[in-house]
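We modelled the chain as a single entity of 147 amino acids. Its sequence is:
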Amino acid sequence: MDKELRIKIVSKGGQMPEYATAGSAGADLRAYLEEPVTLMPGERRLVPTGLFVELPPGVEAQIRARSGLAIKHGIGLVNGIGTVDSDYRGEWNVPMINWGQEPFTINSGDRIAQVVFARFVQADFEEAEEVNETERGSGGFGHTGVK
């Protein structure tokens, strides 16, 4: 992926994503709101960013929760990590939830999520009667033990 992305920002108030530090993998996304929004405990809401992004083919944007909001206030994303497909051209909205016990207010310009970009491959699916065995086999959740 080229490092440059084409981004349309809604008029006044919309803000370009930005990396907080030189080593940041995720760029912060900010809320773009007409007025503050308060999430009550257990409430879900799409929070707009004011951004329309042109992703190149073969690149997805992974929208992730911000750890500070999660640990301090119980604020997360409804779907854990959201994927923005490379052919989507609508406004980026963040599906937020208040897992905490107190109301939480989001103001326009607040950092609400982060975005990480990743290449992807679309598979060619082929039906098979069997799949190859491995040493691990069907061992799943916790099969290797605690230590």
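As a brief sanity check on the tokenised model: The chain has a mean pLDDT of 93. The helical segments are 67-73.
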